[in-house]
Amino acid sequence: MDRLYPLPKAGSLFRQNLKHENFEKLLLQLFLIGLVSVPVTIVALTFVFRLGHTTVFPPSDPHSGWSDSPDTRGSFNVIWICLSTIFTCVYISVHVGVAAVKSVNTDRTWQIITLPALRKVYWLLFNIFAPELMVLVALCELQSAIAGVAFMKRRKVEGWKIRHAFFADMGGFKLANGVEFRKGTDFYEWFDQERPELNFHEIETDIRDRSKANTVLKVLTCLQASWFLIETIMRFGEDLPVSELEVTTCTYIVCAIVTYGCWLRKPYGVDGRITLHTTTTRNILSSQVIVESPVDAREVNRISAYLSPVTAEGTASAELPLRTKPSTAFSWRSLSPTLAEVTDPEKARFQPPEDLPRPLFPNATTTPFNRAYRNPNRSWFIACHISSCVGAFIGIFHAVAFWNTRFVNTQGQWIWRACSLTQVAVPVALVFVTFIEYLYCGIFLWGFLLFLALVYCIARTALFALIWMSFKSLPTDVYRNVHWSWNFVPQWN
Fold first, then answer.
1. Domain total of the chain
2. What per-residue confidence (pLDDT) applies to 144?
3. Which of UniProt's keywords are assigned here (predicted)?
4. Do 409 and 456 sit in the same domain of this protein?
């Protein structure tokens, strides 16, 4: 979307190195990097473990292999509770936006890759490999929704809540004539021009009905996850050892709680858009042309008769009336070239509201890059730095908990240390990247960013491998219960 004001410096690295701000392909590239990291890690660990040997534990530190669980904690019991908790936290924390209507001109392979079901799988894998990534997304979306609520409040609009703002940012609204608002800024621009009479209470009810998970489910998930977190802390308090998988589960819980806090009012699993039936529709063009004479006004009216709806590809379509084009998307961008051809460019200018939330990436269609903020630089910094702190915390937690732990192979200890420190170093490096891009955002910095992503994925995969191998030999006391937890605290998995 074209703007009269300059783009913010934050995010310039992405704008410089992504053609047309195609973040869908960036996410696909990151997904492929994650896939590549798996065989690379397997080969590397196989080579490194061959250099070591099986660890011999002293009698004072007895270890045992796989343990059944008739009356106490067993290996399967620990794995089941941890994996079910991780899956619950990860699955419910993935909020995919409303899918866009496919264009007939889009490559079929790309259409398959971007299917709504596969998009959720991508985000699930991202959440597993880098849970702090979802914290970044949630913080960006929360700040965007807050900016939308503030914008409507300045318009003296009653009843517009943060749930509406989330839904608008998800691309959840469309008009009865088929025009779709793919982003929140599109909706706010239209609303500012038309000032329609809308029943926001009924709209909120409709949003709740379309959402597949309510606040109660999120709260129950948080309670179950918090119970697991408290029990793990109690094991440390009673000087009982914990497994590596339990500590990793706690890091997912921390990320999930932060994410749920940001998305507590965000609709979940919404498939279709809500159609807005309005009775007031003014000429869209009247807000974009500065009319200085009656002749100009007549020229504007003449031009408006030839304007066509805009398809998902951004090109005008004139073969069918607007009301018969269900895939049309609201766009101001196509109006400017039309005006430039038939009017004086000095008189025809796009003038968005000055207090409209501003996007970091005007052409992006993927969350969180298509969100808009009152202060984009500050919002991007807040989201990047908080999520980086969460990522560094995850690495520190892994490092401190098992810094001196001996694994089944003598090479395991230094691999765990190196991977944990990598989880600390990569988020810290990303913080520095947000500052460096103000001075330089060329291809070398972009390549360094992708290299960090590969290193991070390799470190995470190596940690997952060590966690799985640890069940071959865990301290015997890992299978001792915290005396109060299993008998008096209910569980839900």
1. 2
2. 92
3. Membrane, Transmembrane, Transmembrane helix
4. yes
